Amino acid sequence: MRWFGFGFNAFGQIHVRGRATSAASGDVAAEVKVIGPTEVTGHEGSRRLKTCRIKASWSRRASLHLNGDSCVCLAGFGAATSDESCGVSVVVSRGCTDASIGELHLTLVFPDRIESWDLQKKEETPSWSMELEPQSESSGPPLKLPLVPGGYIATKPPFYRSLSPHLKAKSLALGAEHAILLCATGAVYTWGLGSHGQLGHGGLTSEEEPRAVEALCGMTMSSVATGGWHSVCISDGGDLYVWGWNESGQLGLPSRGLRKALQQQSSQQAAGAACQVADSSPGEEVFISIQAFPALLDVAPSCEIRTVSCGSRHTAAVTTTGDLYTWGWGEYGQLGHQTLISSDEPKCVEFFREQQLHVVDVTCGMWNTFAAVIAEEAASS
Q1: Which of 172, 196, 251, 331 would disulfide-bridge 246, Cβ 3.0–4.6 Å?
Q2: 257: pLDDT confidence band, cut at 50, 70 and 90?
Q3: 230 three-state secondary structure
Q4: Could you say which DSSP state residue 264 is in?
Q5: Within 13 A of 205's CA, how many CA atoms are on the CB side?
Q6: Reduced to 3 states, what is the DSSP secondary structure of residue 148?
Q7: How far is CA 262 from CA 67, 191, 271, in A?
Q8: Is there a contact between 94 and 70 (Cβ–Cβ < 8 Å)?
Q9: Concatenated DSSP letters for 18-38?
């Protein structure tokens, strides 16, 4: 399995090839915008390690390697690019089973404990840790971060937050100021800030405690994800539901602000053009700024959605046929379409089709996207 990345790369979190030296400061600077899929580099260059999972924040990438002695390697802000050091020592993370990365902390899960490391400090011990009870086989598959037994790990102190056992949490995603939880029953709960409709309850009010998204009741969901101020989930049948803020088209629904920006940009590029941008009137296309209820999004014809991930203001989804579709804010190339243009319509990233690569997973940083691929012949065997 190979990983490709595109989008914001100011700290070398996607790749470190072709780095240039700033004449003003003498510092080595990475290419800021990677507009097309580029194979990730850094510690992954070592053939001894196999990247199985990637987690990303705004300025960093954490790669979890699970072959042999599992470990986590960092790329991006504050991380060295040599095999000897990755900001946080590889030895420190030996034996970890999961990891998550933020701007301030790196969280590692081990069979017997959870550790949070302060990325702003060079310390030999974690800033916070919690012991875990041994898990029996009857307890089911291990939870994935940010979920941990009895609760979840937040992005800032206090790290451990409890959850009611009645929720029977299966997975959890954390946005900028809200959370979305999937229960073992397939029900979806949200809480936190609701000012952009990101909770899906039909209004803009906030919720202090988890509340069921009633619009999804009666439907079984299999996966959830969240961006900065929008939320998505996948049903058992492979349908994608979206809600929240649509200012940059991150819901894949018509965005007036985005259309205006694109038309104004086109008019500026066309010499002497006198194009006037008008608001929609009755009978014309309806634009959506905030979608406070879950809406069914038709991503690709006759295709089910396998997995989905969200950046701050963009979304990426993988179909069961191995295609990657992206939409939303694209100013740093995070949509992977070889442009810096945003889009409020899901579009296939043609690079992977052209290279006969089958996309199997996707994860988004705030302003970039990472996709895991295998060769098409391997996918069909």
Answers
A1: 251
A2: confident
A3: strand
A4: H
A5: 7
A6: strand
A7: 46, 34, 16
A8: yes
A9: T-EE-TTT--EE--SEEEEEE
Cα–Cα distance measured from residue 141 to residue 162, given in angstroms and rounded to the nearest whole number: 20
pLDDT, tens digit (0-9, with 9 covering 90-100), for 68-93:
678 898 889 877 543 434 445 666 88
Asked whether 226 and 190 are in contact (CB, 8 A), the reply is no
Task: Supply 91's token pair.
Answer: 């030895």
Which amino acid is present at 272? G
- Closest Cα partner for 170 from 233, 107, 227, 239? 233
* DSSP assigned state of 40: -
CA angle 338, 302, 185 (to 5 degrees): 100
pTM, two decimal places: 0.89
Task: Identify residue 154 by its one-letter amino acid code.
Answer: A
Rg of the Cα atoms in the chain: 21
List, in order, residues 6 or more apart from 75 with CB less than 8 Å away: 12, 13, 14, 16, 40, 42, 43, 60, 61, 63, 81, 86
For 10, the token pair is: 């100011």
- Residues 6 or more apart whose CB falls under 8 angstroms from that of 106 comprise 62, 72, 74, 88, 99, 100, 116, 117, 119
pLDDT tens by residue, 277-286: 334 455 577 8
The span from the CA of 76 to the CA of 86, in Å, is 9
Task: Give the count of beta carbons closer than 10 Å to the beta carbon of residue 133.
Answer: 9
Token output for 21:
């030296």
For residue 289, what is the DSSP state? S
Closest to 97 measured CA to CA, from 128, 60, 138, 143: 143
Q: Dihedral of the CA atoms 79, 45, 90, 74 (nearest 10)?
A: 30
